[in-house]
Amino acid sequence: MSEQEEGQDLTTPQTQFALQRIYLKDASFESPGSPESFRVEWKPKINLELNTRHASLADDLFEVVLSLTITARNEQDVTMYLAEVQQSGIFLISGLDEAAMAHTVGSFCPSVLFPYAREAIDALVVKGSFPPLMLSPVNFDAIFEQSQLARAKEENKIQ
User: What is the pTM of this model?
Assistant: First the structure.
């Protein structure tokens, strides 16, 4: 057989995806209601804010940042704690068309980062002397699709 496999086109770029590094970019924890918050019954209302962003670092290298902000309030709506984490990763991504690239950095990469962010949030909360917080899994595909639909609606309004 020849060097070129039958049916293989060597001019087509090969798709590559490789995780280069995962790191904690930023983390903070505040407990504005302490020590009083430790003296009340623990029935918090937990609010999760989740955001992603990405930036090109060089050809085929991208930084993706997953930001989580957790606010726990008691029944009197007093903030018991506020925990914020920016979990980041550097990804090598090439050979994708524009739509596939948008999906990769907007959904797939945040899915890779989420378990690390979840662990970082839990560690902050426990170090703050509060009960552990294990966040439920997040469907980043659904979030990405919703953001794409919202963006398309906005573009139609502008035109």
Answer: 0.85
